[in-house]
Structure formats: C-alpha cells, structure tokens
Amino acid sequence: MTVQAPTTGNRIIAAINRDPLTAPHALRNDALLAVLTAALAVALALLVDDGRRPDALGWALLLVSHVPLVWRRRRPVLVLLAVVACVFPYHFLGYTHTAATQAAYVALYTVAVTGRALRTVLVGIGVITLSVGVMLTISAQEALGLLKASGWVVAVLFLGVDVRFYRHYVASIVERAERAERTREEEARRRVAEERLRIARDLHDLLAHSITLIGVQTSVAAHVLSADPERLDRETVAKALDDIAETCRSARGELRTTLEVLREHGPPEARGPLPGLDGLPDLAQVARLAGARVEQAVRIRHAPPAVGAAAYRIVQEALTNAVRHAGPDVSVRVELEERQGALHLSVSDDGTGPASGGTPGFGLVGMRERARSVNGTLDAGPRPGGGFEVAAVLPLTTTGKRTG
User: Fold this and answer.
1) Contacts of 102 (CB under 8 A, 6+ apart)
2) Beta partners for 336?
3) Across the strands, what pairs with 391?
4) CB-based burial of residue 7 (10 Å sphere; 0-12 exposed, 13-18 middle, 19+ buried)?
5) What is the pLDDT of residues 36-68, one digit of tens each?
6) Which end of the chain, N or C, is less surrounded by CB atoms within 10 Å?
7) CA 123 to chain centre
8) 303-318 per-position pLDDT tens digit
9) HEC per residue, 214-259
10) In the prediction, which pLDDT does 231 show?
11) Nearest to 84 by CA among 60, 59, 55, 64
12) What is the C-alpha to C-alpha distance for residues 365 and 330, in angstroms, rounded to an integer?
C-alpha cells in the first residue's frame, strides 16, 4: 500500500488548524520566522524612502526588535511590549517607518491568535493610542498619517481573532468526532458483553436440561439392568437408550444453533428463529420421558419473539429443576395465559424440592435475567402446600432485547 506524502496545501491547512501553543518545533520555527522578518525589514529599509536611512543606532533598533519574536508563543504580551520598546524609538528618530512595521504586525497577530478577544481589543486600542501619541511629538501630520494607517493594525488583530475562532471550531469538531468514536466503541463493547451473557444463559439452560434428562434416563436403564438380571426387560432398556440418544441429538442440534453466533459477523438479529411458545409441548414431552407427569394449560398462542423466547427458556429451566430436585414420580403443572396485556407464566410441582445445604446453581438467576431482559418479573420459591413454584409476568408490549 503506497502512502502519499502530504501536499503543500495540506501542510498549510494543518499549520492553520494546529494550536500554536502546542505545535511541534515551535521555538525553531519562530526563530526562522524572526530571521526572515528581519531580512524583509533590512530590504525595506534599503529600498523604501519614507524616512531617513538607518544609521548604526537605527540598524541596532531595527534588528533587535525582531529578536523577541523567537519567544512570541510563550509570552505574547511581553514580546509585543519588547518589540514596541524598540520600534517606538526607531520611529521617533525618523528612520524608514515601513521597515519596522513587520515585527510589530507579527507580535500583534500572536497576541490576537493566542488570547481572548477582550485582551486583543485592549491591546489594539493601547498600541494605536500609544503610536499616535508618539507621532504627535514629531508632527501632527505624521500622527494623522499613522492614524490612517492604523487600519492595518485592526486588520491584523481581526485576522488573529478569526484564526483563533476557526481553530476552536475545528478543535470542537475533532472532539465531537472522538467522543462519537468512543461512544461507538463503548456501545460495541456493551453489545459484546450482552451477547456473551446471552450465550452463557443459553448454554446453561441447554446443558443443564439435557444432562439432567440423560442422567435420569441412564438411571432408569441402570435400574432395569440391576433389578432382575435374569429377567431382563430388553424393551425398557432399549427405550431408555433410545431416549438418551434422542436427547443427545436434540442437544447437539440446539448447541450448534446457539454457537453459530460466535462464527457470524452479522448482527444478532440474523441468527435465525427464536424458540417460542410452540416449543412448549416438546419440553413437556421430554420431561415426561424423564418420568415426570406434566400437565399443560397454555391459553395464549402468540407472543412477541423476545417474550416467547424468554417464556420458553423459563419453562425449560423450571422443568429441568423439577426433574432434578423434586424427587421421583413428580407432578408438574405448566400454565400460561394472557392477563392485562402481560403473559402470566407458572410452573409448579408437588415434589420435595432441592436438598438443603446443596451448592446453589445459576438456574434461578438465569430465569430472573430472562424475565428482566423483556422488562418482566419472576418469583420462585416453595409452595405453602408443598412443592416448588416458578411464577413470571412478562409484558407483551415489551421493547426488550432479543434473547435466545
């Protein structure tokens, strides 16, 4: 890839946009400017005839007036005073007036471009007043001529103020662009964190559900094999093994779908259809294969995709917990209905519940996160008459994020 060198025009624009107080090589550049300005002053003193040609004292005053320009960015007001201290005696003695104006203009421009507008106005008024006062000591005609020429002083000051405002404008544009870029980066990091959390929830729900069912089905097969080895119920063992194989196939397919987002570069919305309310019968059937008696009362058929996905995952995790913790021959009732613009979900069982003192998992936390992702609420705990219940309220008009 070939990188083109910046053109002269680009260099000039960059120099104009750059803050003079933070520009690189400022001292070197100002020293070069002072030398060039002094050379121009010498040429004008030799070529222009608007005063007497400088003698030794005149040349000394003229050249010394350019020395402070080397530090014009660091102390602009002091540099202006130093230049004025040399220029006024030069004019008072009647030397070539045009030759001494260049250093004064550079000092005035520096004051205007580095300071506030009020300071610039006060400096301009002071310079013009002092200049006219000095010229009045020579002659009224010289003072009047200088007053007419003071328009150049005003023009130089206005140029400095305009450049200063322009630099502030460019700096504000750059700052807004950088802030917008930081905002985009923060938003990207936030979306990555949310997607990682979504994937972690999906993997937890999927693996916990599938591994629990496989464990139950394996226990059934092991019990049949060890209960009466001489009268082996081959049909029951085969059915248990088929159920294990089917659970593995389903888990593998859903796991592949969940992890595909890690290989995609597009937005999360391109991941494909979300699980929804139409998948609840399959969840109930899988729980029945694990030995639970599941009753369903689904009195709602349609819900927003995000709400349907959240309800699906909550029911999946609740059934998994019931199969795992509620004990053998558990009865589970799943109810979903629409009331007052919200989906009311309940999964209750009559089992013994989780054993006390066990290590808490992430199931309840994940269910609550699912509900919050669609601006809903979830409560879970033991039932007064025994068993355990998970109850959630999910608004059907939610604008929550898409969850899978």
Assistant:
1) 37, 40, 41, 44
2) 298, 345
3) 346, 379
4) exposed
5) 988 998 888 888 887 788 889 989 988 998 899
6) N
7) 44
8) 888 888 889 889 988 8
9) HHHHHHHHHHHHHHCHHHCCHHHHHHHHHHHHHHHHHHHHHHHHHH
10) 59
11) 64
12) 23
Instruction: Supply 395's token pair.
Output: 């608004």
pLDDT band (50, 70, 90) for residue 356? low
| Cα 38 to chain centroid, rounded | 51
Q: Which two three-digit tokens encode residue 403?
A: 């969850």
Residue 127 pLDDT? 74
Instruction: Determine contact, residues 235/173, Cβ cutoff 8 Å.
Output: no
Amino acid occupying residue 160: G
The answer to whether 224 and 233 have CB atoms below 8 angstroms apart is yes
For residue range 359-369, what is the model confidence (pLDDT) as tens digits? 555 678 878 88
pLDDT tens per residue, range 56-115: 998 998 899 889 988 888 888 888 888 888 888 887 787 887 888 888 888 888 888 887
